[in-house]
Design brief:
The protein is an alpha/beta fold and 147 residues long. It is built from three helices and eight strands.
């Protein structure tokens, strides 16, 4: 499972001009399920994200987690994180989970996130979405979990 985290002061997802998910201070999480991913990997990914100390403390050091700052989590499915560009100019997405499996893992991740954190918003799996964000810092962190 791959993720790209962006620390944001605000973020939202729109579909056809309608906001489907929005947060203020928190994390925008672009999430990609790959072949071989399962619920255990999703849980490890979620645990890491919720506890990752990337928000500033009173001294200005990155020492506080999403939970510490009571921030929002906006989760957006992003199969293109599985892009392989080694063999030419057109990306290959063969490492991405097939759509049905990707949807199942994405939905499972959201269910786990909502059970563990009070403020979780999301995009819509497979939809054509417009993602708006104000990256704070900027802080952008890639994460990869595998079996």
């Amino acid at each position: 499972m791959k993720a790209l985290l962006q620390r944001v002061s605000q973020a939202r997802v729109e579909i056809d001009g309608q906001v489907v998910g929005a947060i203020d201070l928190g994390l925008l999480l672009l999430l990609c399920a790959e072949h071989g991913d399962d619920a255990a990997i999703a849980q490890r990914m979620l645990d890491k994200i919720l506890k990752l100390r990337i928000f500033s403390d009173d001294a200005g050091k990155m020492n506080r987690s999403l939970q510490d700052v009571a921030g929002g989590l906006l989760v957006v499915s992003q199969f293109t994180l599985a892009a392989d560009v080694r063999g030419g100019n057109r990306p290959s997405f063969t490492q991405a989970a097939p759509p049905a499996e990707g949807r199942r893992l994405y939905d499972d991740f959201l269910e786990r996130a909502r059970a563990a954190h009070p403020k979780v918003e999301s995009g819509v799996f497979g939809a054509d979405m417009q993602v708006h964000l104000v990256n704070q810092g900027p802080v952008t962190i890639p994460i990869q979990m595998s079996a």
